[in-house]
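Weekly puzzle thread! Below is a chain. First person to post its structure in C-alpha cell form gets bragging rights.
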Amino acid sequence: MNDNQNNQLIVKSNRLIEASYRLTLNEQRIILLAISRVRRDRELQLEDVFEVHASDLVSLFGVDPKTAYTELIDVSKTLFNRHVTLENPYPDDPRVKTLLTRWVSSIAYLPENGCIRLRFAQDVLPFLSLLETQFTRYKLEAVGKMSSVYAVRLYELLIQWGGVGKREIDINWLKQKFQIEEKYSAIKDLKKYVIDAAVIQINKYSDITVTYTQRKTGRAVSHFIFAFEDKKKMIKTSETLATQSKKTAVKEKDLLFGISKSEIEKLARPGESYEDAALRIKRMKK
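Winning reply:
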C-alpha cells in the first residue's frame, strides 16, 4: 500500500453524509478506502477504478491477516447490492425529491494481487468529486480504529457541524438515516446499543471529544443534543490555562499580604521589616 493513513482524506458531499443507508463495518471501510483515493484535481469519471487491498484492512483497521482477503471478497459481494437514498439530491433540479442508487457499479477480483477493483455508481460520483461547497472532510485515521459502524456515521454527522461544535438531532431522523427504524423502540436501548457505544468510540479513537444530552417533546424524548470539541484545541486550552495559573502563582508569590515587593521597598520606613511594612501599607489603603 502506497498511501499513508495520516494523509488519506475522506471528502463527501453533505447530502451523502446525511443520506439513508446501512452498511456493515467492513463494507463501510471498503467504501471509505475507495473514497480516500479519489483524485481532487479533476472530475471523477465512471471508468475510474479504485483498488482496495487485503493488506489495507490489516494495516488500517486491524483485520486478521490470515482472513483479510477472504473477508474482502465476502464483503465485496454483499457491498455490490447495497444502496443509498439521498433526499433532494440536486439543488439545480428541485423536482427530484429522492434518489436511490447503488454505491458501486462493478467489482473486479485480482486474487494474485490480493485486492479488488471497484467503480462507483454513476449517480454517486457528483457527491464525491470536485466539491466546492456543502461538503465534509476528515482524515481516515479518525475512524480507522472504530469497531461500530454507528460510531463512524455519528462522527461524520457531528464534524459536518465542526464550526459550530454542537448539533441537535431528531431521533426519528437519525434512525431513518441509519436505517434502524424498526429497531430500538425504547430510548434506553437506542442509547445503550447505538448512541453510547458510538460516543465511547468517538471519544477513544477520533480527534474530537463528545458529550450529549436529550430533549423532550411533551413526555417523550425526541432529540439528542451533541456537544463536541477538537482534542487538539482542548490540549491548547489546557496548556493556556496551565500557563496562566503559573503566571498567577508567580504574581501571588511576589505579593506579601496583597502588597507587591516593589511597593513595599518604595514605601518601607528605615529599620522596618517587609512584613511590618506590608501590614502598614495594607492598613493605609483601607
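Puzzle host: Confirmed. Bonus trivia for everyone else. Residues 169 and 224 are 5 Å apart (CA to CA).
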